[in-house]
# Entry
Amino acid sequence: MNDLFIQDIRKINQKIITCHASLKNLNTMKIDGKVKYLIKPTTFLETKKVLQVIKNYHIPYHIIGNGSNILFTNKEKECIVKLAFSFKHPLNILLANELIPVIAEKFLKNNYKGLEYMSMIPASIGGAIVMNAGSYNHHLSDIIEYVYYLDENLNFKTINKENCCFQYRNSLFKNSSKIVLGCKVKLINESNEILKKVMHECSLLRKNSQPLEYPNSGSIFKNPFKYKAWELIEKVNLKGYKKNGAMISEKHGNFIVNYHLAKYEDILYLIKIIEEKVKKEFNIDLEREIIIID
Ligand SMILES: Cc1cc2nc3c(=O)[nH]c(=O)nc-3n(C[C@H](O)[C@H](O)[C@H](O)COP(=O)(O)OP(=O)(O)OC[C@H]3O[C@@H](n4cnc5c(N)ncnc54)[C@H](O)[C@@H]3O)c2cc1C
# Structure
């Protein structure tokens, strides 16, 4: 442990660092492991200061949101930053760590549309911006006006939606050192009945088609042009295929579930089997949507 590093982080805020934390509750696949320093800044300014200290000490770090699109390797992680803002803000400002299902409920209560088709995505706003998350052809980016972030030199920046390069599961922020802090969205009125109906229907569709009863990370692969990844996986007869505690879901071929204490190696084994079989059968290179955090 680097005592000076810990001291410097505690100078920013006594309570934001935990040493030797478990990874299990930091990812929806529930892969277990350890991280030396887990840091949870509570304001924009604390985030900037924390990252400055991390850089000063040359500590390798990862920023995560709700951990619903990541796969941790079995290596002990040095440092993870997970934003934990909790200050008051108007409804059209969304903080990076707020969860889509929670905001969708707030929008429903106040009769605003935009998140009703996405209310079952277990993403943080930050993660959803980075991944340009969406479902049923509706994306968080549809209602975004501006994104607030820290750039590579830790300067606060505001960027308008047009410059965010939002594409299918991609954005300016993916594979970059930018830290998304939040966004400003358009508030558009909609009738409460319509919002409720859409949310109810989407929720039913998901419960019927996705293995929500087991820990998982959503879709493992992006849909290749003109194809559905789940269909290709189904066609190569991999649904239900297991490796120790991991299984390619019987309900949805593009989901891998942790049905019993699965490890990183088990999930990766299944990912590779899918890639190999789909390549052999259809000559298609599936592109991973899940992000491996080493
Ligand atoms: C049951 C289930 C259903 C799902 N359904 C859908 C769906 O319908 N549509 C869809 O698009 N996705 C879906 N997903 C996948 C996932 O929810 C999305 O990819 C989501 O955007 C990830 O958000 P997160 O907060 O969990 O990010 P994480 O998984 O924690 O991180 C994802 C990436 O974003 C980066 N990141 C996170 N926060 C920040 C930040 N503040 N600043 C900079 N980088 C950051 C991380 O470093 C990582 O590279 C589903 C997942 C599950 C488990």
Observations:
- The pocket of flavin-adenine dinucleotide is lined by residues 28, 62-70, 83, 96, 121-124, 126-128, 130-131, 133-135, 173, 179-180, 210, 212, 216-218, 291 (CB under 6 Å).
